[in-house]
Write a structure and sequence with these properties.
single chain; 270 residues; alpha/beta; two-stranded antiparallel sheet; 9 helices; 21% strand; globular; disordered N terminus
């Protein structure tokens, strides 16, 4: 069987943005593994602004180092290294429509917390976005936040598929606080688990109902050893553009394992 059969030319690739940071190399490793598991291609993108030949030489090193890091994870996925001029966030958002998944490193060069590129891409991408921290990530459970929103449903579906693909347990977590809401929360979690189990009967599901006023803290408390935390974008709007919901932003900011942010099905990049 040749590479065309394994990796269909029309299949959307996993897109990973690089900037020379340690977090970006961690993102490349995660993206390469995911591309191999999905049996699709991997595209590595460096975006540059107006600059000198020195800046271009730096970009070439970024792409070379990223390609080498991907090859150490898996030699299977076809890798396409691309350099394009423009704004990094806008380019990744634009490319998201033609990508199965967008992967970025948390923070970027010299930043301890989320950078503006990460926030913008996570809020506005038309494809799921995975944010990867430079710290080593264990092959733990796939933890997903459960709620009754469209992006919450999309997050649960994405997490279940990821758990099946990686052969990991799935931990759906619903965080509640008000005593009057406990019964409704339990029914919602049970309903979501039953639907997921019907679709994915072979994965182990470990539902958790967590009481915590801080929804992000409640989810992170169950995801301390997670291999991946999955959340819906719960986007709000600031003017004409979507922004992340408070819980989604807090999870991204405070988690140290990879975090997947899932838009509601059918959302276009903006």
């Amino acid at each position: 069987m040749d590479g065309t059969d394994i990796y269909p030319a029309k299949a959307k690739p996993v897109l990973v943005g690089v900037d020379g940071s340690v977090a970006a190399i961690a993102a490349v490793r995660w993206a390469a593994e995911e591309a191999a598991l999905r049996r699709i291609g991997l595209e590595i993108l460096w975006v540059y602004g107006p600059g000198s030949a020195r800046a271009m030489a730096f970009g070439e090193r970024c792409l070379h180092d990223a390609s080498a890091a991907a090859a150490r994870v898996s030699s299977e996925p076809p890798r396409c290294c691309t350099a394009e001029p423009g704004d990094p966030a806008e380019k990744l958002i634009e490319r998201s429509a033609a990508s199965a998944l967008v992967v970025v490193g948390a923070g970027g060069r010299g930043q301890a917390f989320l950078g503006g590129v990460v926030r913008a891409v996570a809020a506005r991408s038309g494809a799921p976005v995975v944010v990867v921290h430079p710290a080593p990530f264990p092959p733990g459970d796939i933890v997903v936040g459960v709620d009754d929103s469209p992006s919450g449903d999309a997050a649960l579906a994405f997490a279940a598929e990821c758990a099946a693909r990686r052969d990991r347990p799935l931990t759906p977590v619903l965080v509640w606080y008000d005593h009057e809401a406990e019964s409704a929360a339990a029914k919602l979690l049970d309903a979501r688990v039953r639907v997921t189990a019907d679709v994915w009967p072979k994965i182990e599901i470990r539902p958790q109902l967590v009481r915590n006023r801080d929804r992000a803290a409640g989810l992170l408390g169950e995801g301390g050893d997670a291999g991946l935390i999955v959340i819906g974008s719960h986007g709000r709007r600031l003017g004409s553009r979507p922004i992340l919901g408070i819980t989604s932003h807090e999870v991204l900011e405070r988690a140290r394992c990879p975090v997947a942010v899932i838009p509601a099905a059918g959302r276009s990049p903006r």
